[in-house]
Amino acid sequence: MLRILGKASSINVRKVLWTCAELNIPFEREDWGSGFQSTHTPEFLALNPCAMVPVIQDDDFTLWESNTIIRYLVTRYGGADLYPAEAQARAQVDQWIDWQASELNRSWSYPLMALVRKSPEYQDSAALGAGCRDWARNMEILDRQLHKTGAYVSGREFSLADIPIGLSVNRWFETPLEHPDFPAVSAYYERLSLREGYRLYGRNGTP
Asked: Which part of the chain is the GST C-terminal domain (predicted)?
């Protein structure tokens, strides 16, 4: 059985859990990370030298880095409908997965730490304002893309890209800040919420 190491509140662990739900992959999850078993122990560092969750073990195969893990799972467990083999269709999916990791993630990091985690190190009002504006700018990019497709981030059908993007959309709505009106994003949020995996691991009250 697939073994998943990482606490269930982690957005990156939730990517893996939601992917497993979409593919009906049975798994066992263990709590590792802040507040649980330390990722800095020799045992964990032997699995991931970066000391980050999630890590998976699939029989004797160990893998870390959440986006790599979800790509592996759809390839290994028959998720061709989520991650197409055709080069251009796959590139469209990968484009949005990578955008979420490189642009969208970076824009919400300061507001999340300030407004949700309430870290005393993230209480500079100017930096918070800049972070909120940057986050909104990226959400506007997503809104335009969703208006263009009329459904999901890479096209008319749900794909692997919607898992990291969908979790980021949940984080947007769960963070107590002013939310500009992005109707396509709001409709997307409701559309994703019809999926059991998203209700379990995305729109479940966890930012």
From this structure: 86-207
Compute the mean pLDDT over every residue in the chain, rounded to the nearest whole number.
97
Position 33 confidence tier, pLDDT thresholds 50, 70, 90: very high
**pLDDT per residue as tens digits for the range 112-170:** 999 999 999 999 999 999 999 999 999 999 999 999 999 999 999 999 999 999 999 99
What is the CA 82 to chain-centroid distance, rounded? 15
The verdict on pTM exceeding 0.85 is: yes
Sign of the four-CA dihedral 53, 56, 57, 63? negative
CB 63 within 8 A of CB 19: no
- How far apart CA 191 and CA 33 sit, in angstroms, is 31
Q: Which of 15, 9, 146 has the alpha carbon at shortest distance from 74?
A: 15
Question: Where residue 90 falls among pLDDT bands split at 50, 70, 90?
Answer: very high
Domain 87-201 part of CATH 1.20.1050.10? yes
* Contact call for residues 101 and 164 (beta carbons, < 8 A): yes
Chain centroid to Cα 190, Å, comes to: 17
Domain ranges of the chain: 2-76, 87-201
Angle between helix 183-192 and helix 162-174 axes, rounded to 10 deg: 110
